[in-house]
Amino acid sequence: xxxxxxxxxxxxxxxxxxxxxxxxxxxxxxxxxxxxxxxxxxxxxxxxxxxxxxxxxxxxxxxxxxxxxxxxxxxxxxxxxxxxxxxxxxxxxxxxxxxxxxxxxxxxxxxxxxxxxxxxxxxxxxxxxxxxxxxxxxxxxxxxxxxxxxxxxxxxxxxxxxxxxxxxxxxxxxxxxxxxxxxxxxxxxxxxxxxxxxxxxxxxxxxxxxxxxxxxxxxxxxxxxxxxxxxxxxxxxxxxxxxxxxxxxxxxxxxxxxxxxxxxxxxxxxxxxxxxxxxxxxxxxxxxxxxxxxxxxxxxxxxxxxxxxxxxxxxxx
Length: 317
Ligand SMILES: Nc1ncnc2c1ncn2[C@@H]1O[C@H](COP(=O)(O)OP(=O)(O)OP(=O)(O)O)[C@@H](O)[C@H]1O
What we know:
Number of strands: 14
Number of helices: 11
Strand content: 25-35%
Order of helices and strands: EEEHEEHEHHHEHEHEEHEHEEHEH
Keywords: ATP-binding, Nucleotide-binding, Transport
Organism: Natronospira bacteriovora
Number of domains: 2
Distance between the termini: 41 Å
GO molecular function, one term: ATP binding
Largest sheet: 6 strands, mixed
InterPro entries: AAA+_ATPase (IPR003593), ABC_transporter-like_ATP-bd (IPR003439), ABC_transporter-like_CS (IPR017871), ABC_transporter_ATP-binding (IPR050763), P-loop_NTPase (IPR027417)
Bound molecules: adenosine-5'-triphosphate
Protein name: ABC transporter ATP-binding protein
CATH architecture of the largest domain: 3-Layer(aba) Sandwich
């Protein structure tokens, strides 16, 4: 920890300004990203495959060259102060680095040395114990199961006591036990003041873990919000009623509801918040009955992540 951490005027853990990235192939992976990640928070970058999450965190971690724009880590520029910013960051990548003849303990201990830090067996032991790797400390990495290798990747990322930990798709293909251990570890680290940034394409994962969520789609940061506020926006469900007789217009008393009539007049679509105790569905159905509007079929539908992104992007325009 630096002496200025926790101060109200301390720089953000990560500050990204006007960042653009176009790969050599011509693919625009990031467009005009502005983002501030606060110290000590758990921030989830949520987006579908190919949205640009890995590109963004790889730039912050110094693994991919930024195109245009500025990225600062604890106030230090990632290019001008590369060594400094890299030493503040721990990264658990999506891909497993496999097949090492080195032992678990040495791998984690060497990783610390790569950042120019002195040996610290107490810290390494703590990290290995936290990740249930202590019993395996003398195993060669190549002999470990996939789950254990993933634990080693996390241990390596923590070896140099980073202030900011990046987890790229941390639970993709991970067993329940590791998932649980990982979340416990994340909460412990947060308790120590570590900033945690994770990428995910699961709303549930972002919901379970994060203080704030940034939604990214097609290289654009669509919105950044407190988890509670965002989950409210994402919790919309749709009820679709197929009518017995087509309607030409909605009765006046129904106009105020979040209700749409399809163009052909055969369907009514009602949007409601599944997180609210009173969805309004019962009232709607009884009002329809009062108006003599009968339906032959109904079904409900919860917006998929993809649709939510589409609607969020649309709302932005
Ligand atoms: N080295 C590269 N060269 C060219 N294009 C790339 C490169 N790396 C990624 N891309 C492309 O950039 C876009 C963003 O990829 P990125 O891996 O950042 O997305 P992501 O949100 O992390 O997706 P995923 O969850 O699938 O990892 C994708 O269209 C991807 O194909």
